[in-house]
Amino acid sequence: MPSWQDFQPFLVTGLALGGVYALSGVGLVVLYQATGVVYLAFGAVGAMGALITWSMISDGIANWLCWLACLAFSGVVTLAYGITFGPLLAKRDPLVKATATLGLLLVLFGVMDLLWTTSGGESRAITLPTDNGGFSIAQIQVTWTQVIGLAVGVVIAAGTAAFLRYTKLGTAMRAMANDREITATLGVPVRRVEAAAWLGCGLLAGVAGLLLADMVALDATTLTFLVISSLAAALIARLRSIALTFAAAIVIGVVQNMLVPINAVSNYNDMTPFVLAAIALLVLSRRQVLSRAREDT
Amino acid sequence: MLETTEVAASARHRAPLRRPATGTLVRAVVIVALLLFALLALPQLLSLYYVDAMTEVAIYAVVSLGLGVLVGRVGLVSLGQIAVLAIGAWVAARLLFATTQPYPLVLLEAGLITMAIGTIIGLPALRLRGLYLALLTLMVAGALAIVLASTNFPNGGHGFLGYNGSLINIPPIRRPSIATNDPAYYRYAVVVAILMFLLVFVHIRTKPGRAWSAIRQSEPAALAAGINTTMYKLWAFALASFVTGVAGGVYAGAAHYLYSIDFPAQNSIILLAVVLMGGAYSLWGAVVAGLLSQLLPALLNNWGVSNDWLTILFGIGVVQVLTTAPRGLADQVPKDLARLGRLLLRLATKPTEATAEGTANTAEGTANTAESEAP
Q: Which residue of A has its CA nearest to B140?
């Protein structure tokens, strides 16, 4: 058994990764609440945004412009998908809506593989300027990127919770989570609120894509399927509670990284999100056998 | 309830008196002719490259069939079927290295063991419905992929895992003695696929099939009608896992060497896409899905076109199927061809009114599509 000393650096990376999972999870929960869509292309959009940023940086364009391009791409693609297919599929089963986003995932995945071929063996990386700076607490080296990862997670989670609680648009989103038809009857511009949720989710996908490209790897497949880990946090919260999503994301990030120094399981540490989400799904659904009957359309 | 039983009973009495409809007869003849062509003529006509591709088509048609049972018959979406295929291949490879049993027996055992694993995973998952079940299968598949990546596939080594890390003198996975070369193995794979299709066909036409369609339409109603929904859903899981496990066994022999990168997570998503595009509600859809996912990449490779275009196409296809044509290509193409045929016929007979008729026909077509969206 490794000593506490060995775990310390992994606690830091775990918290940072957990922060990014939290930010992605919150984006997924808000979009699901407002539109009923589980956005499985979240990771793919962020990945492509990050790859665009990488290409622009290699071309020597100013860094901040490249980061903005990533956010703009993710936001625009997500918004365009939401505006086009959201209304078309609005009355369908949540399962159909989620499956349709797999279509977007495949399209983006194909485009990424086509434009940024990986066969050459060249490795890409995005290094944020915050990677170099940092400080140490009790002999643990912490980079500013890791601080940003956790901080952005906290800020987004708290900000979103406040936004949903106190603003007019947030109230409209919560109303739509309860009942889309009645909300429309009350005069809420349903489509516009949905579009806002899509745009917000897309921007978060861009942020998550950039941070994960720096922290994990800039690789289309890895980033595309990291959405599953973020989704795990959202699923543990039953796609409802922001606070629970945040807590679950931090736990997943920390556990996943704390397992690395333990030799017996270090090969399996990436299973953490899947296993935790599977257990949570099964435990939380114990009393839910027929209560979802309304979804049978 | 009583009335329907009576009607059903009288229908059963009348049935033997009627001659089989000519449509059924024609369909049977067409199917037999196609199968004979696929079994006897195709290996002679095609180069080895395409024979191998067609072997993959036969394997993936069975995998699609398994997913089609879940999606089309019971309404359960699984995003982890490639992981199930990997389990089948793993078990078959382990058995083939460990024993000298005849190949069909190994296939049967691989199917049964995969079925047991699938059922064990499926049992708790049955508490979940729809979206949550799909996401759970995604999670389980992700976890299995990580396990497989670190255990690796058996390659003649010792121990339970049968993995020889030194990677020298790795024997290939054996094939049945009657089908050692590629064309013979292709025929073998097609025969196995036919047996699996027959197995599923029998299920669909008998009691389980009726129970599944009742569950698909409304689970509370099925429960109220006295159907043991849990058992039949589990049965569907078991059947799908069994055929997928057998397909995995056939895959092991076809590939000779297995690697965990042959079963990437995105393939489960592509599989769902092609099954939906092919048409989850018909058995033909599974064949179409097999062709889409295995023959098209082989064709494109041969022409030097990147497979990424295909991924993009499948992505567009799945959105198109979900928004406008839920029954997939197997249903849509014959309809469209018939419509085109009618249009051409009218063009030929009444050249002057052709344009007017054409527009009317299109309008009819749109109505048709809207109608078929209902289920």
A: A274
Q: How sure is the predictor about B62, in pLDDT bands with cuts at 50, 70 and 90?
A: very high
C-alpha distances (whole Å) from B261 to each of A156, B148, B274 are 36, 9, 20
Closest-CA residue in chain B for A115? B308
Mutate to test the interface with A, among B138, B263, B324 (most CBs of A within 10 A): B138
Q: In chain B, count of helices (H) and strands (E)?
A: 17, 0
Which residue in this structure is represented by tokens 């997928």? B244
Residue type, A23: L
Question: Helices A144-166 and A4-35: crossing angle, nearest 10°?
Answer: 30
Residue B94 sits in the same domain as residue B201: yes
| B 274-293: CB under 8 A from A | 276
Over residues B239-246, the mean pLDDT reads 94
pLDDT confidence of A122, banded at 50, 70, 90?
A: low
B1 pLDDT exceeds 60? no
Rounded-to-integer distance, Cα B374 and Cα A199, Å: 31
- B152 falls within a domain: yes
Cβ of A113 within 8 Å of Cβ of B127? The answer is no
Q: What angle do CA A104, B131, B143 make, to 5 degrees?
A: 80
Please state, in angstroms and rounded to a whole number, the distance separating the CA atoms of residues B110 and B154.
Answer: 14
> CA angle, corner A284, sides to A198 and A170, nearest 5?
30
**Domain containing B375: what range?**
324-375
For residue B60, pLDDT beyond 90: yes
- Return the H-helix or E-strand segment holding A143: strand A140-143
Q: Which two tokens stand for residue B293?
A: 């996912």
Cβ contacts from A onto B, under 8 A: 152
Q: Do A281 and B315 touch (CB under 8 A)?
A: no
Which amino acid, residue B42?
A: L
For chain A, which residues make up each domain, given as ranges? Answer: 22-115+125-229
Q: Which residues of B touch A89 (CB under 8 A)?
A: 322-323
B317 neighbourhood in chain A, CB within 8 Å: 103
**Structural domain count, chain B:** 2
pLDDT (mean) for B37-60 = 86
Alpha helices in B37-126 (DSSP H): 42-45, 48-68, 81-98, 103-125
Inside any domain, residue B352: yes
Among candidates B135, B273, B308 on the partner chain, residue whose Cβ is nearest the Cβ of A114:
B308
Domain boundary among B310, B340, B359: B310
As beta bridge partners, residue A136 has A141
The first and second tokens of residue B244, run together, are 């997928």
pLDDT (tens digit, 9 = 90+) per residue, A31-69?
998 888 889 999 999 999 999 988 888 888 888 888 888
Q: In whole angstroms, give the CA distance from residue B372 to residue B279.
A: 13
Q: Is B119 helix (H, G, I), strand (E, B) or coil?
A: helix
pTM of the model: 0.83
Q: How far is B337 from chain A (nearest CA, A)?
A: 26
User: Looking at chain B from residue 239 to 268, which residues have their Cβ under 8 Å from any Cβ of chain A?
Assistant: 264-266
State the DSSP code for A154.
H
Q: Which residues on chain B are in Cβ contact (under 8 Å) with A230?
A: none
